[in-house]
Amino acid sequence: MDFLTKKIPDNELKLMYKDYDSLGFGMIYTDYMFTMKWTKEKGWEKGELKKYEPMSFDPASVVIQYSQEVFEGMKAYYSEDGRVLLFRPFDNAKRMYKSAERLCMTPVPEDVFVEAVKELVKIDKRWLPKEKGTSLYIRPTLMGTGVALGVHPSPEYNFCIFITAVGAYFSSGFNTVSLYVEDKLVRAVVGGVGDAKTGGNYAASLLAGLKAEKEGFSQVLWLDAKENKYIEEAGSMNIFFVYGNKLVTPKLTGSILPGITRDSVIKLAAHLGYEVEERNISIDEVVKGIKDKEITEMFGTGTAAVIAPVGGLCYKGETVYAGDNKVGKITEELYNKLVNIQYGEDEDIFGWVETVDTI
Ligand SMILES: *Cc1c(COP(=O)(O)O)cnc(C)c1O
């Protein structure tokens, strides 16, 4: 690849021990990373694959002072026939491009993004766990590393990618989780940066997240910032409600992160013959739908968890459960179908899967 400064010779790469029983999420970091720098003078310089190490920036850099940062989350999967697979990597590249534009950052060209991810995965495939459900979680990150204390876009950017070997996102496995519906604090407002994958959204979410955890819930379910009425999304997942054979998910209003898993589930469900509606859905409609048993299943979607069955919602001190707090049939069907595509077991009917390498 001519966008890299150098190739890492195979004999420098050690085979890594993998303890499948204790993978968790974000616990095991691989030994290599990718970095690439942009400056006003030189544009994008060549990218570098190097040993994982801390990075140093000026304390006055724009990323540190004003949170000029965007990131992505994607996975590499091991298929039984020995291939290393990526899932819809160009969609991550496109989304990061858009997020960067929203934050006035120099975006990473989409083909460079995908090639850089592939080059790092080829090196880090030594860490790829092979058990189904496990994967390499890839975190491309773009930061404004230059100094502009007078609040302006950074004159310098750093694009880095690192990887962690992961197991299932929720320690409870494929079981239902319950969500805490936050009716005072808000995550994002239309016109803001809610639809950009930027760290600031997460910083803004921490307080509500801690409160939810303290109450025994795994994530927050956010409402719209204007009326505290319409459901937006969960902490790091988009949300779906199942009414019999119909799936309903909040439409993308501008304050919701456009999840690639969300989009995949919409397409997959339609292909399987389910009706799918993207529309505004109020918390009152959902609570009533659960109580009347019209809502039979609920689930969240996101790269980290893939599909997380949701059993209960706590709203204004009352917790209501859909489908007797059990994993629903449609939830499980969609999970299995999606995971089988991601792990290269089912036919890739949508053209979502890319082979990076073999093991
Ligand atoms: C990343 C993310 C999602 C899920 O997006 P995927 O592309 O499906 O991984 C949902 N909500 C938020 C806030 C996110 O940051």
UniProtKB/TrEMBL annotation:
Gene3D superfamilies: 3.30.470.10, D-amino Acid Aminotransferase, subunit A, domain 2. Pathway: Amino-acid biosynthesis; L-isoleucine biosynthesis; L-isoleucine from 2-oxobutanoate: step 4/4; Amino-acid biosynthesis; L-valine biosynthesis; L-valine from pyruvate: step 4/4; Amino-acid biosynthesis; L-leucine biosynthesis; L-leucine from 3-methyl-2-oxobutanoate: step 4/4. CDD domains: BCAT_beta_family (cd01557). GO terms for molecular function: L-isoleucine-2-oxoglutarate transaminase activity; L-leucine-2-oxoglutarate transaminase activity; L-valine-2-oxoglutarate transaminase activity. The keyword Amino-acid biosynthesis applies. The keyword Transmembrane does not apply. It catalyses: L-valine + 2-oxoglutarate = 3-methyl-2-oxobutanoate + L-glutamate; L-leucine + 2-oxoglutarate = 4-methyl-2-oxopentanoate + L-glutamate; L-isoleucine + 2-oxoglutarate = (S)-3-methyl-2-oxopentanoate + L-glutamate. GO terms for biological process: isoleucine biosynthetic process; L-leucine biosynthetic process; L-valine biosynthetic process. Its cofactor is pyridoxal 5'-phosphate. The modification N6-(pyridoxal phosphate)lysine is found at residue 197. Its EC number is 2.6.1.42. It is an enzyme of class 2 (transferase). SUPFAM superfamilies: D-aminoacid aminotransferase-like PLP-dependent enzymes (SSF56752). Keywords: Amino-acid biosynthesis, Aminotransferase, Branched-chain amino acid biosynthesis, Pyridoxal phosphate, Transferase. InterPro entries: Aminotrans_IV, Aminotrans_IV_CS, Aminotransferase-like, B_amino_transII, BCAT-like_C, BCAT-like_N, BCAT_family. PANTHER family: AMINO ACID AMINOTRANSFERASE, BRANCHED-CHAIN-AMINO-ACID AMINOTRANSFERASE. Belongs to the class-IV pyridoxal-phosphate-dependent aminotransferase family. This is Branched-chain-amino-acid aminotransferase. It comes from Clostridium ragsdalei P11. The lineage of its organism: Bacteria, Bacillati, Bacillota, Clostridia, Eubacteriales.
